[in-house]
Structures are given as structure tokens and as C-alpha cells.
Amino acid sequence: MRLRDRLRVLFTGRLPGETKQAAGAAGAAVASPGVARWPEPGFVSWAKEAYGKNELVYACIQELATSVPEAPLRVYRETDTGWVEVPDHPLRQLIRRPNPVQSEYELWELTIVHLLLAGNAFWEIVRARDGRPVELWPLRPDLVRIIPVEDPRIHHTYAYQVDGKLYDLGTDVLHFKLPNPLDPYFGQPPLRAAVRAVAVDNEATEYVKALLQNDALPLAFLKLPRQIDEDTRERLEQRWRSRHARERRGGIGILSGDADIKVLGLNMRDLEFPDLRSISETRICAAFGVPPILVGAKVGMDRSTYANYQEARRSFWEETVSPLLRRLQDRINHKLLPMFGDVRGLEARFDKSEVSALQESVDKLWERVTRAVEAGWLLLDEARAEAGKDALPDGQGQVRLVRSGVTEVPVGATEGGGTPGGTAPAAGSEAPAGARGSGEPEEPQEPQEPQEPGGGPGEPAEGQPAPTTTGEPEARQRGPTRLLKAREEIAQARQR
After folding, report:
1. Is 105 left (phi over 0), alpha (psi -120 to 50) or beta?
2. Which one of 4, 219, 264, 472 is separated from 117 by 20 to 30 angstroms, measured CA to CA?
3. CB 356, CB 70: distance < 8 Å
4. CA dist 130 to 44, 75, 91, 168, Å?
5. Residue 226 φ then ψ, to 5°
């Protein structure tokens, strides 16, 4: 199909008959055990009456359609160290520029609009001579036909209706669809469940419009003291309208004689239909999975705060957008990615790392990193990397800040201060202060009585040589525990 013909299909839905061979109603170009499957009617009417006339439906669909492109689709390869992005993969390049007239953002936006209005979204896959996809074209879902075939490996093929004719597309179509328990071929749109709420909301708007524009309900009766003929009635009515209707509303009217006026119209509070509007808005937003506060619905704005808005944005992404992204990427991994060759160890995913609604606030990030550094869980360079900063030069950030009152006890040390191997401190030696652990207070020592020179158990008597050690290092005799850095060392490390 030539570029000119594709543009004509995309924007006008019309295509010259010689572009592709017609499949025909009986499926002459494809093997079909039956007639073509037609999608449920309603796409055009819902596009006009719901998406084109109802502000809330339009806002909900646009909220979803503009949120999906925030997470770009990328290709990753599985390695021994985890998943690594493949930025130059042909699939990523194709999604970045799907066709000569649409960008990546426009492709996803139109795809989501089709999916929410029809329950289905279709991409025609144009292949090069080597069989690899080179272009992606979105198709109007109400013009796509699915033709079942007898071959279980294919299951069905696709055709596109233009000017009353079906043009065979084969299997080169990527089909996104929402679940439909009654139809295995076509999806069910959210508007099918919300169509009554949308109709009620539209009728309420039309009623208020007709009442304000045409005065469909008499706002007042003019009571005269005597009977008047039909000509006089029409003349008075026309004069009253010319002086007080339309842009002259709210002016001053003067009555003479015994004439009296009786007001019957509704006030503005009654015209709002607050309860009816709130119910309709809630149901429409629930059908699309969009919090009312995000689309400016009255039921959401009544209790709106900045904190509520932030929580609603995060909830919207976690409960509505993320499952939708998973549905889209699974179809791409299932059909489109294998068209580029060997896919072992490859997977296409939506990158949500830069989605603003899922990002941690700057204050919370610094608070979390600071607590981790003070607790000794992170090195300085690790903390700087977490905060988006570069590492310190010459390895200055490869230090861990630990409070001076905290001691380190090796794993397997005995309660008496023995080493993991079972060696106890030498007799008469004392463990250093704080060796009992960071959370265990030291036992008070009993005051010792003064001893005579040379009479202490740990000192040799006069004239006697000092006792020899067992040959162990002095650090070993002091026990397995040691003091950590002092406050001065920590201060110097922070200054570095």
C-alpha cells in the first residue's frame, strides 16, 4: 500500500479499489469456514454522543490516553546481573517512529482512544522484503473484520472495509482488546457498562440547556383583572419577551392596574441536579478507573486537597494505568517482538522510572537517605548515588558513618567474650568498656579494697619476675570485641 493511500485511509477512511485485492463477503481471498465477524455497533455513536458531547467521558479517556505515553516502551535483555536495556533494538526504533506521519506519542494516544471507545485497537504491520516490520498504522476499529479460518495455527485473519469492500490484511495485524466474556474475537469497551450513566448525564445537560435557552417551562404567569382576546394575549406576550427575554434578563418590569405576576420557575440550585449529577459522575469515573478528582468532577472536587490529589495520581497509576500497560506489552511480546528474529532473553517493557506520579518527593528522598546513612546502612557514595549525585573523588565516599556509641560484635561470639573459635580471654584480663553490646548497660563494679604492694592478684610481688603471656597478641587477649570510630574520626570523614 502506497503512502498516499495509507494517509487517505487514516484520515478519510477511503481507499482506491485497485490498492489491494478484495476479500469479498464470502472470503474469496482467505480460507474461511463462515462469514466475517463484525464488531458490535456503537463505536461511531459513542464517539459522537459520549466522547464528543460528554465532558466527563472525554476527560476520562484523555486522562488515560495521555498517561500511557509517559512510560516509553523499551527492549531489555536478560543477563547474569539482571535486565539490561537494548536501546538500539529494531522494535524500539520502530515504536519511536511508527510511520511517516505519526509520532510515538500520537500512536499510543490514538490507540488508547480506540481501545476505550471500542474495546479494540488494531495496528497494521507493514513488512520489508526481509520480513521485518518497518511501519505501524493504526486502523479504525469499526472497519476491521475478523474472519475465522480452519487452520488452528492461524485461527483467524483480518480484513479492512473501505468503501463497502473488504481488503485482506492476512495476519499482519496487532490486535489489542479488553476482555469480553461473550465474544472471543472482539473486546468489550468500558462505555457499554456506563452507557446509561452517560445518557442520564447528557439528558440532564440537554434539559438545562433547553430550559435556559428556550424557556421550555413557563417561569411566571401574568394575571390580569379582566378577560382578554387571543390577539391581545399574543401581543402582550411578544412585548414581554422583547423587553425581558434573552440578553435583557434581570431587567425591571412595571405592571399597571390590578395586574399580578406569579413566579413558577426553578431556582439555579434546583437546575444543577446535584444528586443526579454526582451519581452519574461517580459511575462514569468508576467505569474508566479514573479518580474523579483527576478529571475535575464535582464529586471529586468537593473533597479535593493537594495531598488527596497526589494520592489519587499514584492510585490511578498503580490500579488503572499499570495493568493497562501490562496488557499492551504482553501483546507486543507475543506477536510483534518475534517478528524481529530470535527473542530468547529479550522482553519489551514500559519504563515507568520517569513517571512523575510514581516519583518520590525530594524531601522524602533526602529524609530516607539521611536516615540510612546515619544508621550505617549505606556508604557515602551509595547515598549520593541514591540522591542522584556523583561519587566523591579518590574513594573518599567509600566510608560508612557509624555512631561512636555503637560497638561491633563478631558473629558467633560467646557471652563471656570468647572468640568464635571458643578461646576465652586470658585470666585476669578485662573486656574493654562497651564490649557487652550497644544496648546492654555495663554492670557496676564493686569498690576494691586497697592492697599492699605486691599483694594484688594481678601484680607480681617485689623481687619476682612478671608473669609471661601465652604468646597471643595483645589484641587477642583483650577479647574479640573492638571499639569503632570515635566521633572525631566521623567528623573528619564528613568533612572529607
Report:
1. alpha
2. 4
3. yes
4. 38, 21, 15, 21
5. -145, 165
Q: Taking Cα atoms as reference points, which of 329, 322, 368, 361 lies closest to residue 346? A: 329
- Spatial separation of the C-alpha atoms in residues 40 and 432, rounded to whole Å: 83
Q: How large a percentage of the chain has pLDDT more than 70?
A: 64
pLDDT digits (tens, 9 = 90+) for 41-92: 678 888 988 899 899 999 999 999 999 999 999 999 998 878 899 999 999 9
Angle at 198 between CA 197 and CA 201, to 5 degrees: 85
Strand pairing partners for 310?
none
